Amino acid sequence: MAKPTVEMQAVLDKLAALGAKPFSTLTVPEARTQASPADAAHAVQWDKRLSSNPEAQVTTKDISIPTAEGGVAARVYIPGGKGPFPVVVYYHGGGWVVADINVYDGAPRALALRTNAIVVSVEYRHAPEHKFPAAHDDAWTAYKWVVENIHELNGNSDKVAVAGESAGGNLAANVALMAKEMKTKQPVHQLLVYPVAGNDMNTPSYKENANAKPLGKADMEWFVKNTVSSMDETKDPRINLNGRSDLAGVAPATVILAQIDPLRSDGETYASKLKDAGVAVDVKTFDGVTHEFFGMGKVVPEAKQALDLAVADLTAAFEK
Fold first, then answer.
1. pTM value?
2. Which residue in the list 42, 105, 126, 166 is annotated as catalytic?
3. Helix, strand or coil for residue 268?
4. Given 261, 265, 266, 313, which residue is catalytic?
5. Pick the catalytic residue: 42, 92, 136, 291?
6. Is residue 191 within 8 Å of 313, Cβ to Cβ?
7. If 199 and its partner were Cys, which of 32, 240, 243, 261 is the partner (CB 3.0–4.6 Å)?
């Protein structure tokens, strides 16, 4: 297993100091209430007395997106200025089981500021209370709602991108595929940050990073076990994206991966399958960082570089 950078290690040390334990050793309620990598990054930021500006210029508005089951919460990040703004529909990580739009605040806030876009961060239903495919259904419903209604929040529905981290990266990829399949308005771009893209837990990166923190192989097994009703469901094309043969014609993608992450091979494979299908793909693996690094731009230089890459690609897509 590769060694984390000094800055990444500082976040991992802080996470340990905050008492975080491997997900695989916890109950679901324990896993949901323990310190997150985002908490650790905030604590490092606090220790270094780093300012949280200029993200403070982004205003937020909490809304409810209607669904057949009664609605999902979402947080809308609105940049300063006139608009109408391009839009990013963002899906947070957490293995479909833990975390929420409060934990994953760093990335959507930074994306809103840097791309001068409205970011809609979607709070989909979680397993095990709501098993697969509840989160996927909510992700699609939210995207459709945004396309139809975002003009009321000063958004431009002709310039909608999707983005997500980890389990949320899988949701974003699925939304892009669904939009193509349903022949509805396709996203102009998809930003996939270490997405769950396969059901094989014996890939090179799973073997190499089996004991990685904050996400190891046993933790991924725990998330999957809590999400699906039976292991057979992991063969579903919505989970096993790498088993699909219908990728041609889907939105151009930016795929951001971490070296010290069991999901790295998943993302590498999906990026190359998209390329083989003729989709424009910008893929980069950042060395010396772990799963969850993306929202840590204030304290991990690679996260800042990854955000720069995401912003450049989204901005180019919005300008087309």
1. 0.98
2. 166
3. helix
4. 261
5. 291
6. yes
7. 240
